[in-house]
Specification:
The chain is built from four helices and two strands; from the N terminus they run H-E-E-H-H-H. By secondary structure, it is mainly alpha-helical. A hairpin with a 2-residue loop joins strand 1 (9-13) and strand 2 (16-19).
């Protein structure tokens, strides 16, 4: 697979270009979570996420890079904790 293929714009949502690599990443993320999605479901999920993010930005909800990194670290810790304790404490 060439870089041109991965960066090819497949569709746009309100001016936001969705590339093949972005679609592939979303498919892999769903599979990692044990979720099977067909192409239409992946596209709908992507479109919904983009529209939600755009509306949040329009309403002034902005996440700083520091907040995003902190959240990512918390999620990573949760995954690691759940791997260490598969039964969890839900």
């Amino acid at each position: 697979m060439s870089d041109d293929y991965a960066e090819e714009t497949i569709f746009t949502v309100n001016g936001y270009a969705v590339t093949q690599s972005y679609i592939d990443n979303q498919k892999m993320a769903a599979q990692y979570q044990g979720i099977k999605l067909n192409d239409e479901e992946v596209y709908n999920k992507i479109i919904g996420n983009i529209l939600l993010a755009q509306e949040a930005e329009n309403r002034g909800f902005i996440v700083t890079e520091e907040e995003a990194k902190k959240f990512a670290q918390q999620m990573k810790n949760n995954i690691t904790d759940n791997a260490d304790n598969p039964e969890g404490s839900y």
